[in-house]
C-alpha cells in the first residue's frame, strides 16, 4: 500500500535560515487504527526507522481503556537526552487490510510530539517498508510468508 507523505506545515524561520529552499515539511505519517478489547482509535502515526518500538501518548491509551502503568516499563531516551517511561501492552494495529497483534508502549504524557510512532519492534518486523522521500510517499507491504518459507528450504 502506497501512502503519500503528509504536509505538516510551513517551516519555521530558524529552519529556513539553514535550509532556505525548503518552505514546507512533509512527513511519512500513515493512517492506522489501534484496537484493544473492542475499542478503537484512528490516528496518523509517524513511520520512524530510528525508533526501537511503537510508541503512543497516554490519551490514546485512555480512549482504548488501557491502564497505562499496569504494563511493563521501558525508558526511552530521545534527542533531548532525558529518559521517558513507556508502559507496554499488547494491542492490534490495523493498517489498510493488514492486522498485527503486537506490544506497544504508552507514555504517561498526553503529548509525545506526534499521534504515534511506528518503530522497529512491532511494525518494521511485520512489514517491508520503502521510503521515497523525493516523490513523497511511503510503501508498506506485508512480508510474503510463502516465499519467506521457500527461501529457507535447502535446495
General description of the model:
- Helices cover 13% and strands 48% of the residues.
- It has 155 residues and is mainly β.
- The protein has one domain (28-151): Acid Proteases (Cathepsin D, subunit A, domain 1), CATH 2.40.70.
- The strands form 3 sheets. Strands 4, 5, 6, 7, 8, 9 and 10 form a 7-stranded mixed sheet that branches.
- β4 (29-36) and β5 (39-47) form a beta hairpin.
- 23% of the residues are buried.
Report the portion of residues in β strands: over 45%
What is the helix content? 10-25%
Number of helices: 3
What is the domain tally? 1
**Tally of extended strands?**
12
Oligomer: single chain
Global outline: globular
Determine the CATH topology: Cathepsin D, subunit A, domain 1
Summing up helix and strand content along with how strands pair, one would put the structural category as: mainly beta
What's the name of the CATH homologous superfamily?
Acid Proteases
- Report the CATH architecture: Beta Barrel
CATH class: Mainly Beta
Poorly predicted runs are none
Output the keywords.
single chain; mainly beta; Cathepsin D, subunit A, domain 1; 7-stranded mixed beta sheet; 3 helices
Helix-strand blueprint:
Elements: E1 2-4, E2 6-10, H1 13-18, E3 24-27, E4 29-36, E5 39-47, E6 55-56, H2 58-64, E7 72-77, E8 83-95, E9 98-107, E10 117-118, E11 127-132, E12 137-142, H3 145-151
Parallel strand pairs: 5-10, 6-9
Antiparallel strand pairs: 1-12, 2-3, 4-5, 4-8, 7-8, 8-9, 11-12
Please outline what is shown here.
This protein has 155 residues and is mainly beta. 13% of the residues lie in helices and 48% in strands. It has one domain (28-151): Acid Proteases (Cathepsin D, subunit A, domain 1, Beta Barrel), CATH 2.40.70.
